[in-house]
Amino acid sequence: MSQREKDQAALTKFKEAADAFPTSDAGLFARYRQAGHLHGARVPKNAMEAYQQVIASGGDGHYAQMAKLGLAEAQAQTGQYDEAIATFRDLSQRKDGPLPVDGVLLRLARIYVEAGKKTEAEQTFNRLVEEFPDSPFTPDARKELDQLKKTS
């Protein structure tokens, strides 16, 4: 069996499990994995649909939050920067959520760079550095902030 066939078989199994148990943890996990496989296979439109299903069924739970992250990545991959930025910005405001805010801020700043929004990128890198001085992401944020200042 080729890797492509294995991937397709996995996608089929994830979809079957998610369709059978759409709101259970197992079903949400399966749908999330289905979305991740689609995203990795560079089928962002289908990945976004699957991530949206997890978000709609997952409430405020862990899988829904992770799906929001995946959705924002797929949006950025397809050039939907404003949508991706809005999602990352929303996730960066959640102090009590399951996602590390410092990591979300780093990705948000990088999306701003990709979108050509240098001022917003600088502000976001600065927020990360100021609010999370001991974060493992802070050195990268400082380095990227310096690069931005050199190109401005």
Description of the molecule:
It is elongated and about 50 Å long. The termini are far apart. The chain is 78% helix and 0% strand. The mean pLDDT is 92. The chain is built from eight helices and no strands. Helix 1 (3-20) runs antiparallel to helix 2 (25-40) and helix 5 (81-92) packs antiparallel against helix 6. The longest helix has 18 residues, at 3-20. The protein has 152 residues and is mostly helical.
- Rg, Cα atoms, Å: 17 Å
Fraction of helical residues: over 70%
Oligomeric state of the chains in view: single chain
- Termini separation comes to 51 Å
Number of strands: 0
The secondary structure category is: mainly alpha
SSE order, as H and E? Answer: HHHHHHHH
User: How is the biggest beta sheet arranged?
Assistant: none
**Total helical segments:** 8
Gross morphology is elongated
List keywords for this structure.
mainly alpha; 78% helix; 152 residues
Task: List the SSEs and their pairings.
Blueprint: H1 3-20, H2 25-40, H3 44-58, H4 62-77, H5 81-92, H6 101-114, H7 118-131, H8 138-151
Helix pairs in contact: 1-2, 2-3, 2-4, 3-4, 4-5, 5-6, 6-7, 7-8
In short:
The protein is 78% helix and 0% strand.
